[in-house]
Amino acid sequence: KMAELLELGDNCREGTSGASALADSCLSDNRLNLDVYPDGCQQFLKLFEGQQGEVVQVEFLRLSSNDHLLGTTLDILPHLKLLKSLVLKGGHARDEFGSCQHGSLTSLPPDMGNLRYLTHLDLSFNSLSTLPRCILHLPSLRVLLVSHNSLVALPEDFGSLNKLTFFSAMKNQLKDLPQSIGELSVLQDLDLSENALEFLPDEVGNLHNCTELDLSGNHLSSIPESLGNLKSVRRLHLHSNLLVMVPASLASLPNLSRLDLRNNCLRAVPQEIQSLPFVHLRGNPLGQTDPSLQADESSARGLRRLFLASGEDSFTVTSEGCKVVLACGIHFYFPPGAASDPLQIYFRTLAPDPQWVKLRHHDVLLSRVLELQPHGVKFEQEVQIWMPYASPQSLHQREVVVRTFSGESWSDLRTRVKQKRKSKKHVAHCSVLHFSWFLVVSRLVQNECKVPAEGTLLFSSVDPNIKVTFPPGVTKEPRSVKLQVLPVSAQEMEEITADEGCRASPLLCLSQDSLLDFLKPVKIQLPLPPGVTGLNLDRSRLHLLHGDLEGQTWDDITSQVVLEFTHLYAVFEVTHFSW
Fold this sequence. Notes:
This protein is mostly beta strands. Helix content is 9%, strand content 27%.
């Protein structure tokens, strides 16, 4: 079948006769899938020119938005009046690092709003910063996907899409939602994960037919009580936010079968929710003292403020608390009660000593070392620190964290970053109960989970195609597992191997907090190298390498594991972790 498709692709380049052959093959059922061709838009334009009568009958169309002729092709789409499904996705091309490239789509022709039969529209992996207005005029639209774009807001009248049953806007930059979202009365599946949402409108509670709601990976510190009105919801995903409380009404949702609250800031949870057999609470500071993590200017009003000049190296903290600004730009906030008795704080900034500051693989140092004394002092309330840092050239697939030294080892703190509006300086913010040494680093994005005895799944947020499966019985005691991914470009591989044809999947680093191997094999799924599929795979050229973190060597373990292949992935099992 693949040979036939390739032959058709060659024929299509020969002119009208090729267009006729492609049309006869692909238009028999009113479907035209051209996103599998690197020049799909060119083929579409030739088809439209040579077989216009048949092309305008197409009901299902797929094109790649990585195609350089996309703009010309878009002007023709409003003529396809019978379209029911349109896919204009990016991600079909890869950059020099092997990452999927977003498509060039930034808008749609206004006349697209006249496609009265269109029920399915997929614009994922593109460059949309605003939702094209014509989408709101599609009267039959039921499924809309705009994930992996750059949307910062949805139109105020987004609720006019009153037939929408599925909406995915994951991996955008949405900061809030319009109140009209509550008018999507038949919406069943809403995915707003991996955005920048800080608040939810009460109207979200009007989505009475919603069965799955994914709000994970946002900046939510609270959720409205109205979520307790989602009587149809079965799965509610709220993990990886900043939640400090959740309403008890969630426990009364009659159809709820999964409530994911992992990796938030919950210090207390209503008993009704804690007793649910399907609630997930790992990664929360349950039972710990509230450190007032989100103290800001308003909560610090009336506190003593200290502005230290260059050359000063100490200040005094009392039980009343204070705010301190150092000449180098470092800020501290000591809440009332942090120190029970007057305490003299000494500080200095140091150049990093490579014999002492041990960076991990692919870490980048972004600041000097801040030393705070007395070491080991235990505060009654968490002290907040803001550290300026040098802006990295790119944060793509990386994240900024504050790292602290305990006297024996370095560990990373939960960190927030922001850019000051006036000075444009970048600042890393963390909260601590102790004083020692601190610095700011850029590291590969780290995904983490607790592996229980019943097993779990861990995905990479950098490349969701990378998956680690922990089967039931894999461990007796829960253990923490961390995952990092490093894409490798074809150019880098050529420099390393001196082989122009050498390609590699992203590098995967797995680590755990236990010295014991797992009790059962852990299954790992990696994407095949760029340009390699299960159809053209030469197994004699494919090697699975295992990296030694300490010795910094790579061993070929291809013959030591059972490698399985699908069209896109390699799957294998291990019992211990490394690269």
